[in-house]
Amino acid sequence: MPTLNKYARSNEKTGYFIRANVGGSHPVTLQVTSTAEQIFKDNGYSDESNIPTKLVWSMYDVDLLYTESSVSSETPSYSFESLSDAVTGSQLTEGTRQDLVRYFEDYSGAHQKRVNDVLSELRREVTAGSIELYNSSEPVQNARNLLIKYSSKSGDKIDQFLSNVGKKGRQSLLTFGQRASQITDIDLTDQGIVSYQFTPLSVRGEVTVFDLTSSDRARENEEYDYRIDYEREQRTASIHIRDGTIEKMTGASDNLTSSEARQLANELTPVKINRSNIKSTIDAPSISELDIPERAFIQGDSDLLVGVVDRISNSDNPLVETDDGHLLLDTGDKDEVYLIDQIESVWGRVLCKLTHSDATSTLADTMPLLGEEEFRDVDIEKDVVDAAASYHETHHEITEARVSEDRLEYATRAVMPDGSLGPVCGFSVCSSADNQTIVEVIAHPDDEKEVVEYGEPGIRHQVELADDVTAWETAVSTEFDNLRSQSRDALLTHQVEILQLIDKTLDKHTGCEPDSLISDVVSSGDLEDQLTHLENVWEESTILGELLAVSDHESEGNDGEKHIGTVDFFNDTGGYGFIETDACEDDVFYHMEDVGGPDITEGDELRFNYTQAEEGPRATEIDRVS
Fold first, then answer.
1. Beta strands 318-322 and 290-291: pairing type?
2. Which of 485, 497, 412 is nearest to 447 (CA)?
3. What are phi and psi of 31, to 5 degrees?
4. Distance CA 386, CA 363 (A)
5. What one-character DSSP code corresponds to residue 78?
6. CB-CB contact of 194 with 188 (8 Å)
7. Structural domains in the chain plus CATH codes
8. Structure confidence by residue, pLDDT tens digits, 269-280
9. pTM
């Protein structure tokens, strides 16, 4: 590694020099300009300090370091394809990098342009390396992954967050994933607005961005797209942005100049993408085939490209082939497709990785948990599939599904009055959207939100909607026979609460919105007349009972033996992690409360069963493999 050295007093030269090995038998001596000397000092480097190799050569490329002569005999043979190649991947710690950024921001000396070049690279280095996959067909899982990585929430709080955020909120999470490496926390306001705490690169201070487009409730009364709350030295200011333009600033204007406000807006708020302006590079898929985000973090007037990484250079930089040669990217893997912000003719910044969209998506494509072949070519009307997919994406995830004769049946969760997760809920929809729909809910009598697992005692409610006929039935597990000994009003109150909950759920399900469900059921007398008591309400359930019985059976290993997997991630703060196993396509979530004992570390083997929860498979009955 290059070493920083100070000239001895006896030497006619003053200041510092660097001895850098370029692969030959003799190291090259690089002279240090006064600007570079100050940079090194401000970042804690002193005489005989080791300096990161790539930082040295990036500073050499912009003449902050130089050889004794500019003649070729003195020029280092260590070369890079561009300045960005030199800085990317340098061995700077994050703290040192941030210190360098701040120093370059305040610099106003003779090397201003060259310093700005390095500043641009250092900022780009911070935002690279945490590019999130953009895939709107998996909004729940993508949003969950982002929260696990970049929020301070525990697993249970993440699940609650996702249950409260709607389709627009998940869209916001996908978009802001383009700035994931700068996000320090993610939160949700009482109005359902997703907010992001950021580490800004352009302006010192604490910043929170409120995505006002992420909530339907807030959008109705909000004329702006984003609000940036800024705080420095206990002085605050707010920036209100619409269509990429600052519309209003409030607060301490002397604490945040208009120039700084524009910098924050450009850095931390996305703008709408015009698909017609996106260009494709050589070998890139057609733009019409790709799932492209609605908004992106674009710098200035740069061009947007869709490109596929052609190869990785000898210096580990991704290259995209264009009509004019090759474009150097800040991150990327070979053969992957990316949305690229072309900053200059020779290099671009990756915004996100792209996946193919499918204009003729099936239920299995839209809901990745349902990947069996039986969903590929089913004889179910498109409107019926679209309605199920819309509920899955906009409200609560569908965890199990099947095609039974001419009916599509699926298990999900009902919608509580506040939009959160309710009890388990099943739909049975005829292949034609105009025919019979059956909705089934199995709930606990004391708490409608409590999840009654398969086989556990509960109260089953079922409503049938067919043309002008509405029929209701309630079946009570014998374990709750005490309800009969109590006032009939206790059970009737529970029935009415579930009836209201089903009405709310149907209202959120496209194609199932009844005009007068509550009044029809009450006037029919079914709440009192259609009441039965069963030993096990699951056994005679033709929707949830059969769907979740299959799920419960399939979660066990062969011959009843448990699965074995390897821990490939563990969050010691939250006490949760994921298990990689051949038994399941997705990694299986686990929590230490289900294991007990000392913390598990990555690489440990576990024996377990699993259940299919809404957010994905979750391990149960976990044992350590000795």
1. unpaired
2. 497
3. -85, 145
4. 8
5. -
6. yes
7. 3-126 (no CATH), 133-269 (no CATH), 275-356 (2.40.50), 363-548 (3.30.530), 555-624 (2.40.50.140)
8. 888 888 888 988
9. 0.44
